[in-house]
Automatic annotation (TrEMBL):
It comes from the Bacteria. Residues 352-508 form the SGNH hydrolase-type esterase domain. InterPro entries: SGNH_hydro, SGNH_hydro_sf. Pfam families: Lipase_GDSL_2 (PF13472). SUPFAM superfamilies: SGNH hydrolase. GO terms for molecular function: hydrolase activity, acting on ester bonds. This is SGNH hydrolase-type esterase domain-containing protein. Residues 24-122, 533-556 are annotated as: Disordered. Residues 52-69 have a biased composition (Low complexity). Transmembrane segments: none annotated.
Length: 556
C-alpha cells in the first residue's frame, strides 16, 4: 500500500508546551487546576467519593465471594466495606445497547446489561472486582460530567442453538477466566495501538491498573529505549537515556526504515548511546533491533556485566535478541557501540500470570500510517507477545483529515480493515476491539463563540464501527460513553482539555480510560447476555472503495 505523506502536526511551535502534557506524562500536572466544583480528598484534588449511582457497573449475575486464591487482590487492596465482596450492586439504570453514534442522556457510568443467555463453558467465578478508590472518584466525576458510559459491542462469530459459542472478545475473556481461576501460567498481554490519545500512556495506564487490580500485574511489557520526544515522563521508557534520535510512523515523510509494532525506533547519534532500565525482578528480557548496514553492535549488560551482543549482518531485517536476567539484578543497559544502531524496543515482564498492557500508540497515527509497519516485524513481534486482546484507539485523526478533505470515507474504511486483518493474521489467537474517537469540535473556533462539532466525526465513528464488526472485532463507542455531542465542551469547562481543544488532560484522560476499562470488565462479566446481531455486510462490503489519492495532514 502506498502511504500518503502525513505531517506530524508539530510545526506550530505554540503547541509544543501544550502537547508536552497531552502526549507524554510527566510534563503537565496530573491534577490540573479546573473550574468545575469538585470536592478534594486527602492530598489530592481528585473528584469527590463515588455516589451510590456511580459505582462500577456490576455483573448481571451476582455470585458469592470468590476464593481468595482466585481473587487476584489482597484484602489490603480493598476498602473496608469491600473486603470479601465479589462485586458492587448493580446501578439503578443499566445502559442500553449502544447504537452507532447516538448520544445517550446523562446517567451513571455504567455498562451493565441484563443476563438472559449465557455461553456454555463460562467461568463460574465471573464477578466484577471491587471498585478501586480511583475508579470510585472517576465514577463520581463521570456523573458530574454527564458521561454515562456504555457497553462493548461484542459480535457473535460462532452462533449455536443455545447461544454463542465464540464472540469477538472470547479469547480475552477466557484468558481473564484463567487468571481468575488460577489455571493461567503466563501473563495475559493486551496490545494497544493508537494515536496521541493514548501515546502519553495515561488512558491505558488506567485500563492497565483496573485490569491488574482484579487479575494481577505481570509487569511492564514493551518499552522504548528513550522517549518519543525531548519531553514527557519515563514510565514506559528507559529510566535514563542519552544519544538517541526518535523516528515515528507519524512523520511527514516516511522515515528511511519501516517500523516494528511499537511504531517507533531510536537511532544512535553517537557511539556509546545508552538506555538504562530499572529492573523489577523480571527473569528475562528481549531486545528488538533493526539490522542496518554499518551500524555496529548493540550490547546488553546488567550491573556492568555483559549478557549479550548483537551480531549485525547489515541486511535491514528486524531482529530479536533474548537474554536471561540474573536474580537480584538492578539495572539493565542497552548500549550502541557506534552511530547508526537502531533499537525498536525492549520487552521486560514477569513469568507470573497477570495483566501486561503494551502501549503502542504514536502521535499523529491513523490506520493509514500503520501501513508503515514492516510485515515481518509485525508478525514476529506480535507472535512473541502473543496478545489476548488487540486494542485500536483510532478515529480522531481520521475525522480531522476528513474535515480537511485530505482523505475520504472509503479510504478510512479500507485502511482500517487492512490494519485489522494484518494484526489479526499475525496474532490469530487474539481478540480484537476498536475504540472509536472521543467528541471533537471543528477547527477555527473563535474565542467566546459556541463550539461546533467536527463535521464527519459521526460518519467516521459509524465507518469504524461497521468495519470493526464486519472484521470480527468488538467496538466501543467512546463518543457516546463520554456523553455524545457537547461532551467535549463539558470537559473543557471542567478544565480537563488543553487549549487546543483536541487533547484531554489530567483526570479527563483518566476518565476516558475508566470508561474503557469499565466496559471491558462489564463485557467480560456479562458475556453472552445480549449477543450483538450479525451485520449483513461482508468484509469486502465494509472495506469497499478505493483511496482518493489525497494526502492527509497529521493532527498533533
Amino acid at each position: 500500500m502506498k502511504v500518503p505523506d502525513v505531517s506530524r502536526g508539530l510545526r506550530r511551535a505554540g503547541l509544543l508546551a501544550v502537547l508536552a502534557g497531552a502526549l507524554l506524562p510527566g510534563c503537565g500536572s496530573r491534577t490540573p487546576p479546573h473550574r468545575f466544583p469538585l470536592t478534594t480528598t486527602r492530598g489530592t484534588d481528585s473528584a469527590p467519593p463515588p455516589e451510590a449511582s456511580a459505582a462500577r457497573p456490576a455483573s448481571a449475575e451476582a455470585t458469592s465471594a470468590r476464593p481468595a486464591a482466585q481473587d487476584g487482590m489482597t484484602s489490603a487492596q480493598r476498602s473496608p466495606d469491600e473486603a470479601g465482596a465479589s462485586a458492587r450492586p448493580a446501578p439503578p439504570e443499566a445502559a442500553r445497547e449502544p447504537t452507532a453514534v447516538d448520544a445517550p442522556s446523562g446517567g451513571p457510568a455504567s455498562a451493565s446489561v441484563p443476563a438472559t443467555a449465557r455461553s456454555t463453558g463460562r467461568s463460574a467465578f465471573r464477578a466484577l472486582p471491587p471498585t478501586t478508590e480511583r475508579a470510585g472518584h472517576l465514577h463520581a466525576l463521570a456523573t458530574r460530567l454527564r458521561a454515562p458510559g456504555g457497553a462493548v459491542e461484542d459480535p457473535c462469530l460462532e452462533p449455536r442453538d443455545t447461544g454463542c459459542a465464540r464472540s469477538a472478545l472470547t479469547p480475552f475473556f477466557s484468558a481473564l477466566d484463567g487468571l481468575l481461576e488460577g489455571t493461567a501460567k503466563t501473563p495475559t498481554v493486551v496490545a494497544a495501538f493508537g494515536n496521541s490519545l493514548i501515546a502519553g500512556d495515561r488512558i491505558v495506564d488506567v485500563v492497565r491498573d483496573e485490569l491488574a487490580a482484579g487479575f494481577g500485574n505481570a509487569g511492564r511489557g514493551a518499552l522504548l529505549v528513550d522517549r518519543m520526544a525531548p519531553y514527557g515522563g519515563r514510565s514506559r521508557t528507559a529510566a535514563v537515556s542519552n544519544g538517541w534520535e526518535p523516528r515515528t510512523l507519524g512523520e511527514l515523510h516516511a522515515p528511511p526504515h519501516p517500523f516494528g509494532i511499537t511504531g517507533v525506533y531510536h537511532v544512535a547519534t553517537e557511539g556509546r548511546a545508552r538506555g538504562r532500565f530499572k529492573l523489577e525482578g523480571e527473569p528475562r528480557g528481549t531486545l528488538w533491533w533493526k539490522d542496518v548496514k554499518g551500524a555496529g553492535r548493540l550490547v546488553v549488560s546488567v550491573d556492568g556485566s555483559v549478557l549479550a551482543r548483537t551480531e549485525p549482518r547489515g541486511d535491514g531485517a528486524s531482529r530479536t535478541t533474548s537474554f536471561d536476567l540474573p536474580a537480584g539484578a538492578k539495572w539493565l543497559d542497552v548500549t550502541a557501540e557506534g552511530k547508526g544502531a537502531i533499537v525498536q524496543g525492549v520487552v521486560l515482564q514477569k513469568d507470573a500470570p497477570g495483566i501486561v498492557l503494551d502501549m503502542l500508540g504514536v502521535p499523529s497515527a491513523d490506520a493509514t500510517l500503520y501501513a508503515r509497519l514492516e510485515e515481518d516485524a509485525l508478525k514476529a513481534q506480535l507472535q512473541q507477545r502473543d496478545p489476548k486482546l488487540l486494542l485500536f484507539f483510532l478515529g480522531g485523526n481520521e475525522s480531522k483529515r476528513l474535515e480537511w478533505k485530505r482523505t475520504d470515507l472509503p479510504t478510512v474504511r479500507q485502511d482500517l480493515a487492512a490494519l485489522l486483518r494484518r494484526a489479526r493474521a499475525a496474532a490469530p489467537g487474539s481478540a480484537c476491539m476498536v475504540v472509536g474517537p472521543m467528541d471533537a469540535v471543528q477547527d477555527g473556533h473563535a474565542e467566546g463563540k459556541p463550539l461546533r462539532q467536527r463535521p464527519f466525526l459521526e460518519a467516521a465513528i459509524q465507518a469504524e464501527r461497521e468495519v470493526a464488526l464486519a472484521e470480527g472485532c468488538g467496538f466501543f463507542n467512546l463518543y457516546t460513553a463520554m456523553g455524545g455531542a457537547g461532551s467535549l465542551a463539558r470537559f473543557h469547562q471542567a478544565g480537563f482539555m488543553h487549549e487546543d481543544l483536541v487533547h484531554p488532560r489530567g483526570q479527563g484522560l483518566d476518565l476516558l480510560g475508566q470508561l474503557v476499562s469499565d466496559a471491558l470488565l462489564a463485557g467480560w462479566a456479562n458475556e453472552g447476555a445480549v449477543p450483538a446481531p450479525a451485520l449483513t455486510s461482508s468484509r469486502e462490503d465494509a472495506s469497499a472503495g478505493s483511496g482518493s489519492g489525497q494526502t492527509a495532514e497529521a493532527v498533533p
